[in-house]
Records
---
Amino acid sequence: MDRVIEKTRIGRLKRYWPYAVFGSLLIGAGCWMLLGSHASTLKVSRDELTIGEVRRAEFKDYVRTNGQVLPIQVVQISPEEGGIVMEKVVEEGTMVHKGDVIVRLSNSGLDLQILNAEAELAEKQNLLRNTQVAMQQDRLNNQTEQAQLDIDTQRKQRAFEQNRRLYAERLISREDYLQSQEDYQLSARKRSLVSKRLKQDSIYRTVQMDQMEDNLENMRRNTQLVRQRKDKLEVRSAIDGELGLLDVELGQSISPGQKIGQLNDLSDYKVQAQIDEHYIDRVRQGLTATFTRGGRQHLLQVRKVYPEVREGKFRCDFVFKGERPENIRTGQTYYIDLELGQPEQAILIPRGTFFQTTGGQWIFVLDKSGSKAYRRQIRIGRQNPQDYEVLEGLEPGEHVVVSGYEAFKDNEVLVLK
């Protein structure tokens, strides 16, 4: 009997074994799903989320920034000559004209230089006059010497001609004839050599006089320039405009080239903006921008892009195209929309703080019921102050969570309450 009962129990176990295994697997799978769902799911309040709709619309490629109104040109005030401030003729904020005196300086060292230059010029002038007198005297002496040689040569020529006739008639000796011939030839050679020397001396004196005249003229110009430096002690306005800054005090010592102020050219204005370095490769000269002031839209154009990047931003200058705003003043702030390209059709989602956490690589997408949101990989392209351009991962009509993700951590499913 015992053996029969043992076989019956084993048979029953074999018959229910598949059901036991299947039940165990089912329970395990349920537990795994429950634990996994609990690990990656987070319950959040729907009211605390910002939900945006994915839509296909026209993407306007622009960047919004704020710009400050500045004068079209700023001219630095730097004196050419240094000195002590003796008088401030005008104050900051005063409108001045080109050539108006702004500051008067005093420089005793420059006065001494002027006196030394004038004294040196007078000395050179006296030296030139003395040299001219000496050269005139030498020229007269040379002319006298040449005249004497001319007379002596003529006399010896007559004596030679006379002795030649007498010698031909055998009335004088041969020695007397030859001596008269030699005397005449010597006098003629001396006369020729002296003539050449006088000619060379005349050329040399002419060159020397020209050089002295040039040196004297240079000294006159130098003295004139030194006198003009005296005029530079009056610092004058280079343009018509507003004296925007004057950083000097009476008695202050000013160096040549030192910046002491600036002039603002108010004949026109420009707008200078600080733009995020993300756009530095796309901003170029000639791009247009708009801003609204007093209910009217005004047009700007990029005039200059500064290549330096400081604290993550670069500077850009705009000039007005068309009408200027009424009551425009230096220092006003305008909110500018800078167009970077032509509008195009694209899939868009509203801007949101989720981008700071995800970098535009993923986003939470609501299901059709709107009760859950699932994490999905996406790819974002361009952006403007209102929208992101979605290149991959989303379809028009879907809804996404665009508020911040800091509290969601690594959860992949949001349950909306």
---
Amino acid sequence: MTASTYRLTQYSHGAGCGCKISPSVLDTILHSTFVAPHDARLLVGNASRDDAAVYDLGDGTAVVSTTDFFMPIVDDPVDFGRIASVNAISDVYAMGGTPMMAIAVLGWPVNTVPVEAARLVLEGARMACAEAGIPLAGGHSIDSPEPIFGLAVTGRVALEHLKTNTGAVEGDVLFLTKPLGVGILTTAEKKGVLQPEHATWARDVMVKLNTAGAAFGALPYVHAMTDVTGFGLLGHLVELADGASCTALLDASAVPLIDDAAIRSYVAQGCVPGGTNRNFAAYGHRISALTDEQRAVLCDPQTSGGLLVSVDPAHVDAFVAVCAQNNTLSAAPIGVMSARTEVAVQVG
């Protein structure tokens, strides 16, 4: 079997952002009594659950620094490299910034999977970086039991354009720029029930760069932004709502899916990744009552998902126009920020 035909997913116990440690476990890991020296230039760090760290350069701009890596979510090495890279670069866009360069993070089972496949993973990464207009400037590799790939990405943002996940205000309209269903489709593929005509749906969503985030950063009526990844839409909505001391009112029927009928059919067949249940266990008590289908869809771990954006209601039409100019996969208003109640997200 050649490197290009190896089924990479059979060598990993997890897939894509579904490999993420659940929010509740992450809280335990990150808990510390150590008091770090204060640095006034560190604008975004461990104090918040944002997409990247941000450091003020003192000239009206800031460095945006992030890293993201995971195990294969697809079998094709080139696609794996593209998806992992687009996913990592997205964190810079989610802060309203522009990426500058990337460094590769590679773990490879050199005695199990052909090293030629690792070369193809890097080719996919180069393709994604080239599309983003940045160099893949170097990296580090290790021999590991499972394939792992991702990037450390450095970007830059004008301070006036910096967006975080804490700036939403009551009344804001919530938008999602990519449809959901990636985890469900990739699980269907693993179970061997994915229909041939659906084979590229998840990949095509995952390789789409969130370049619109840089444009959104320049819009003063965009109050908050984050990307939707391994914690699922509801997990990232909880973060947005907590950051605003609001409750997000989510219209479940308005949430875009890659294909409504197909996604619901796969859910009915039990194609729900393990990460969905871990997500719900971590934050389900913060959410209003859900149907089984809503839980499967709204907690579905997304890999290289879209941007979740909180927009001043007076500028909704202008925002939709900017989405169109930047070719987002969707420009769907999915809810509003409301006064705080006993739950972080109210699903209707």
---
Amino acid sequence: MSTLRIDDPATGETIAELPADDAMSIAAKVRKARAAQAKWAGTPLERRIAAIERFRSMLLAEQESLALTLTREVGKPIRQSRNELAGVLARIDFFTSQLASAIGDETVHAEPGLCEQITHPPLGVIANVSAWNYPYFVGANVFVAALLTGNAVLYKPSEHATLTGLEIARLLHASGVDPDVFQPIVGAGDAGAALIAQDVDGVYFTGSHDTGARIAAAVGPRMIRMQLELGGKDPSYVRADADARVAAASLADGAMYNTGQSCCSVERIYVHEDLHDAFVAHFLETVNGFVLGDPRAEDTYIGAITRAQQLDTLDAQARDAIDRGATLRCGGSRLPGPGNWYPPTVFTEVNHEMALMVEESFGPIIGIQRVSSDDQAVALMNDTRYGLTAGVFTRDEAAARALLSRVSAGSVYWNCCDRVSPRLPWSGIGRSGIGLTLSRYGIQAFTRPKAWHLRNA
């Protein structure tokens, strides 16, 4: 039997070695899920909601130990792990409060002798290949909504967040979800590929564009539901009338939170030339105050890079920027010693000939580019193959709305960034993926609307 080794990215030490699933064991789990799904779908709505509410209570009761597990295997600073666990509670509350109205039977037309209705039966068996950077946030967006709507879920956590995935499974089972209805899959990319190949009714993936493209090629011909939440190269523009200090503090956090390993991290900043120098000074002051260190320490803000190979990407982007004339303001190369460490890195005098400004970084590195007009900023913001989020900082709401209406992105921000709300859909454009989670649409995404034509003859 193959095994999966889990290392602490802060120290390089092995913290667990687990038996991994193979194609045979995954197929067996899918069969069990298929057999159990109909009974789960027939469970009264209030009982499914009650199970998820018990899961919520258990997350809250065990928050500290769950946060420590997440920090150890991902390298996320402990306070940010606690924040993730606290934040997922609101998403669960949204899903449970909106479920009945989102998937309830709808009568859309009625006349003597004829009634037209829409119902929302579940898809069936869902394959969920999830992400390591926010396993509670990203995972719950899929498996909570999928379970509430009556689906069975095969949950493949990232190999970098497997211990957290197993904790999620333990708590769901203890809350009353049939173990056959929610089953974790342990393994790396080969296990994910084996799961995607199974006879499932929907595939929901969060990860890189390249892997998403391979999944799309494999799943597309099967004509089943597919959602791909992929990468981003998220821009923000600081307009000439913005408050430089406020914008710098917000964008520094947006770029560096979770060590820059967020799908919606700010990855490139454009600043009007009238405000550029003041903004850069405030930005560097903020970034230089971020504490890099042991992720378990209470004052740590910058933790370890989860995936060791990402250090090569960050180093390559930094070298390319320097070779092409960028000015390095801080950081710029990986740190020596055990573990995966990269300091906050800021470049100015950057342009779109540099990989730093066009390719996803997924780390604590940022380029700040000077612009001369709103039109130039919008053109640069749209000069990308991605389209996840974009933001504008300005005192003028009308100007912000006008600019953001011209930007191609699934989510847009005025005077904020790096924010996700359960009430709003989360979706991307271009290489950022297809489909959506969150909002009432994100509940309905796990159902198959069925049209009823009812004639009383």
---
Amino acid sequence: MILCMMAFTTLSAQIRGEEIQVLVQPDHQDWTYRTGEKATFNVSVLKSGTLLNDVSIDLAAGPEMYQDVKKQTVLKDGTLKLSGTMRQPGFYRVDVTAHVGGKDYKGACGAAFSPEQLQPSTVMPADFQSFWQDAVAEARKTDLDPMKRLLPERCTKDVNVYEVSFQNERWGSRTYGILCVPVKEGKYPALLRVPGAGVRPYGGDVYTASQGAITLEIGIHGVPVTMEQKVYENLNNGALRGYWEFNMDSREKHYYHHVILGCIRAIDYISEYTPWNHQELGVTGSSQGGFLSLATAGIDQRVTFYAPVHAALCDHTNSLKGIACGWPHYFYWNKGKGQEKQIEVSRYYDGVNFARLITDKQTGWFSFGYNDDVVPPTTAWATYNTVKGPKEISPYRATWHFWYQEQWDEWENWLLKQMKIKL
């Protein structure tokens, strides 16, 4: 019986990838062109690594999120060549869906045209900085009232792991997270990890802590982060469904108001209640967490380094001009008609405007994919171009809204380097 179970586990772990592949390849190795230049794309549909004959496909091509070429065709020998161009800086995207054996298989390519010239459309309100300074000052009138609980089952010989919580913007509004602290006494650099969209539990960053750093991974919804998975599923499908659209017409009641303040209070917690060395302090996250990294670094000058990965919630108003906008694409579907108040408020919750506050004393690392159809690279590049301080960019072009292992490793190594931790 034991042998049978072992055999089943081994077999199930071997399921990888798909036999059918849809490749869309540009003729420039770096996927980058100058405006007005022609990009040529080679489409191929493969089965077991060889071209598949007589395959039916749907094709869409043009500026990302606003593709103007759409057609259906049959590839007799599994290949197709097409071309496109952009007169303005941006991304020309080709999407191909192949229909094989009753299933759909997708491939895409987003070619960059003069991306270093992309600029955001969002306007920074005159009182943007003072609005957030006042909000932080008001929140700090509420004592952190910290609570900490050891999680012995998560501790290692090198790292103590705790569930912690502290007050956010008012009494009774708490932020929860997982704190990891090296066992060895001393002062350490610190890293705040902020979450992507959704409702979930958190495990904490034990690995980075084991290398010699304090890590705090927070949730944003004001609930403990160690409950059973079913609780988060119920919240995600119930009370918190679509939370990113809650109170979009109010600067003070917008859902991300308490979320952003929770990030700042998390740094307050690190500063007051952990053995931080008061030198290196970073913030990082992906998608929604990329946005929160920008917001935290922009508001709080204690942050010395930040790493937004495919940052969402950037350049909301692009869609008013027919240009790709960031998730959650607030004004994409109706071009903002009847949403004048929401458009005005969105500027206080746009990653671009927080990026404009980042100083030359803060170092940034940006990474994203050219095939991302959730966070368009148009917005990622424009946000990067906005930052005036020291920064690095490392696109992993073929990724969609996910990571490659190499990207993850580069990210982690960069974070350790900023904390002066030797690998």
